[in-house]
Amino acid sequence: MSKATGAGAGTTLYSLFFFAFLFGPLIIMVVTAFNSSSFPRITPWECFTTDWFSVLVNNARLMGGLGTSVIIGAGVVVCAVPIGLAGAMALSELPPRLRAALYTVLITPILIPGVVLGISTIVFWGIVGRAFGEEYASTFYNGIFLTLIGQITFISAYAMLVFSARLQRFDPTLTEAALDLGATPGQCFRKILLPFLKPAIGSAAFLTLLASFENYNTTVFTILSDSTFTTALASKVRLGTDPSLSALAVIIIGLTLIGAMVHEARTRRQALLRSGKPQLSPLYANPVTRVMTHPAGIAIMLIALAGLLVYLGSRHDASACKAGILQQKRAVQEQLLEEQRARIRKLREKAGPATTDAPATNNPSPFGGAFKPGMLAPKEETAPANPSPFGGAFKPNALKPKE
């Protein structure tokens, strides 16, 4: 074997291990979501079922936490994106020394542990609430408000980094020329800077939304008596997992794939339009392929396919298969019990009848027959009429005069 062949085999083997490590857990979760076993597993396979998706949807705590996470995530996007944009623009306008100092200040919340941020948020706004004389039912002690504020403090820094990377490619002479031509700063911002930052705004909004959804360390302290989707999911895992979590993973993977395919179609379409001759592409040969390759058309087709799969899955009935599996399990249990009884009988036959040197008695129990039925019943008196050493002084009717 040549060195090149050995290197190629090593690269192939490494690639297989890499992709197995990367996608193996996802494949396992997808498969376990459709197994009727009450514990997430691939083998032994029992029945194909879609009931775990119904279990997930009918979980009131998870669905309530999902609604809370949507509210908090939307609030974080609305607040964190403008704050991050303002910080990035301030950094781009300052001289190098002040820029380094301000950058350190703005990036610090990312470096602080989430536990510290959560506790400090509760303490700070509790002090503010008491300073205004507010009661515990006020906004200052509301879990959603505290979580929103706590997440904005560090998620804004993520948005700032996205905008800073985009602004490094911006040519400031464009705004200077617009100002020289009579444009106001507001017009320069709306007509020049915002269109340039449009991709960064979408990326920052998506990033802040995901960061808000998946955050746990800060949220678990600030949410108080409420619960987000992440905290509800963590509580469910602590109490015991089931394949409904795998069903959740299938939904997330499906949405991610749909979004990625639509985004890829949009990117290719924009590249084709920028080429200046989209009509020369085979994709534009006829209206059918043109619609099918359009991002909106691909999105409609993928959503329709997902809806069809959901409909077919809801129509699938695995009750007969589950009843057969349950009957098989009961048969196996009966067989195991019968084998255990047979082993016990063999052990008794092998031991033989019990023989001891002491004479046989009616009470072989080592507890002296204390637990024998009827032991507490009064016994008939066979002893003398007055066995007491006190001469029967305490016997009932002892003081009664004798005839």
UniProtKB/TrEMBL annotation:
It comes from the Bacteria. The keyword Transport applies. It is found in: Cell membrane. GO terms for biological process: transmembrane transport. It is a multi-pass membrane protein. The chain crosses the membrane at residues 12-34, 62-88, 100-128, 140-163, 245-263, 291-312. Residues 66-263 form the ABC transmembrane type-1 domain. One of its GO terms (cellular component) is plasma membrane. InterPro entries: Bact_Polyamine_Transport, MetI-like, MetI-like_sf. Residues 348-403 are annotated as: Disordered. It holds the Pfam family BPD_transp_1. The keyword Transmembrane helix applies. Its main location: membrane. Keywords: Cell membrane, Membrane, Transmembrane, Transmembrane helix, Transport. Belongs to the binding-protein-dependent transport system permease family. CysTW subfamily. This is Spermidine/putrescine transport system permease protein. It comes from Breoghania corrubedonensis.
